[in-house]
């Protein structure tokens, strides 16, 4: 889905899980994510939202969406329920909200919303076609590449793009971006306008891995291998 989201579109959140499933570990998130992605192909959802993004919270799929319809929640849940999904915790009704407040401020609102929708579109395509390689790349980026250049914004942008673009280019959506859009996407990915909060790339890492590891210190290669094992991956 390419975004036509506006900064004044209503914002709502639904926390999804497989009906009747427990959420004791992250596998329940990936099970629900797979079904959520299937449901998002349903044509009945096309005119309800202007955009959406996905990530993990407490092993639920956090489905965040932008809409111009105040009654969109019921319409969305009607479709999701047909696919065997249910709410895992209380939803947030669609409402006017500045979601960039803690991620750079109001001046970043439209750009932040656009990035969230873009990364989700790319993530869904990679989830279908290249999940393992993408997870490996994002995990090493989180454990090593980002950690080494945390305070150097321009270098972080350059390293993020150099390291991650070879896998992102396998997304049909990303591969069709012109150079300006690709640059804006990776500037967004590495952006941390509020130094007290997460970088924007956190959302995509969390979506694909089920969380976002943030080591306090640089890890040895052996320690990185141990972290990969925790995620069921090999280096």
Distinctive features:
235 residues, alpha+beta, Alpha-Beta Plaits, 2 domains, 9 helices
What does the model show?
The chain has 235 residues and is α+β, with helices and mostly antiparallel strands. The chain folds into 2 domains: 10-95, Alpha-Beta Plaits, CATH 3.30.70.600; 106-230, no CATH class. It contains 9 helices and 5 strands, in the order βαββαββααααααα. Strands 1, 2, 3, 4 and 5 form a 5-stranded antiparallel β-sheet that branches. α3 packs parallel to α8 (201-209), α4 runs antiparallel to α5 (153-168) and α5 packs across α7 (179-190). The longest helix is centred in the middle third of the chain and has 21 residues, at 109-129. It is globular, with a radius of gyration of 17 Å. The two termini are 32 Å apart.
